[in-house]
Write a structure and sequence with these properties.
The structure is a single chain. It is built from six helices and eight strands, in the order H-H-H-E-E-H-E-E-E-E-E-H-E-H. By secondary structure, it is of the alpha+beta class. The protein has a domain of 156 residues: Cell Division Protein Zipa, Chain: A, CATH 3.30.1400.10. The strands form two sheets. The protein has a six-stranded antiparallel β-sheet. A two-stranded antiparallel ribbon has the order 2-6. Strand 3 and strand 4 form a beta hairpin. The relative contact order is 0.15. The N terminus is likely disordered.
């Protein structure tokens, strides 16, 4: 009698299990709203680049490492008023390239892990950005794009993604402390070299040297001097 009762109870529980399973709602994709639909752009999309409006993603703890949990769009450290205050101020663009060694490429999740470890966070324009804080907080200091056209990263297919190199760059007009930003960029690219290997090139695609680093610093100091003068005598 006891055995029959146990069998009956087991049948009842099994039926209840399948009933609940069949009638419960499908689990939602928690990444659906936070994971950007990134892919390689078509020619038409590239021509329409100026009309691009970066998405604002809601916060998700699981996307923190990718920088997808921020509800802020990518902005510079300056306010809009500050950016408009000196429209005639000549800009100074700093660009460095990290290129893979001959017959090799940067690819897949190894590349993604190296970028994240270096403090880069995926964001607007489907490229990576380095914020004031390494955990992704604060304004943007500089950017990292693929050196392979169109320059974007496809996180949805990162396992099959590859590029010959990376381009790290910033505009002196977009940061409050250009020299400090350069130091941060150099530290970041040093870490990427350690993790990925490769060669660092300057804006002319020549091997980056100490002399070129000094030139960049001199240009940024001159920029800061001009900016200070303009601020003092608008």
């Amino acid at each position: 009698m006891i055995i029959l009762s146990l069998v009956f109870l087991a049948i009842m529980l099994t039926g209840l299990f399948f009933y609940v399973r069949q009638n419960r709602p499908e689990p939602g994709n928690r990444y659906r709203k936070t994971k950007p639909a990134v892919r390689l752009k078509t020619e038409e999309e590239n021509n329409a680049e100026n009309n691009y409006q970066p998405a604002i993603y809601p916060k998700k703890d699981t996307d923190d490492a990718l920088g997808l949990n921020s509800n802020e769009t990518v902005v510079s450290l300056k306010t809009a008023n500050q950016q408009k205050s000196n429209p005639a101020q000549p800009d100074c663009i700093v660009v460095l390239y990290l290129m893979a060694t001959e017959d090799s490429v940067y690819s897949g999740y190894e590349l993604l892990q190296a970028l994240l470890s270096a403090g880069m966070r995926f964001g607007a324009q489907s490229i990576f950005h380095r914020h004031a804080h390494k955990d992704g907080r604060g304004g943007v200091l500089f950017h990292c794009a693929s050196a392979t056209a169109p320059g974007t990263f496809d996180l949805s297919k990162m396992g099959a993604f590859s590029c010959k190199g990376l381009s790290l760059f910033f505009s002196a007009n977009d940061v409050d402390e250009p020299l400090s930003t350069l130091d941060c960029l150099l530290e970041t690219i040093d870490q990427l070299v350690e993790d990925l290997g490769g060669h660092v090139l300057d804006d002319k695609h020549a091997l980056f040297t100490k002399e070129k680093m000094i030139t960049y610093r001199q240009q940024l100091r001159a920029f800061e001097t001009r900016k200070t003068t303009v601020d003092m005598f608008p």
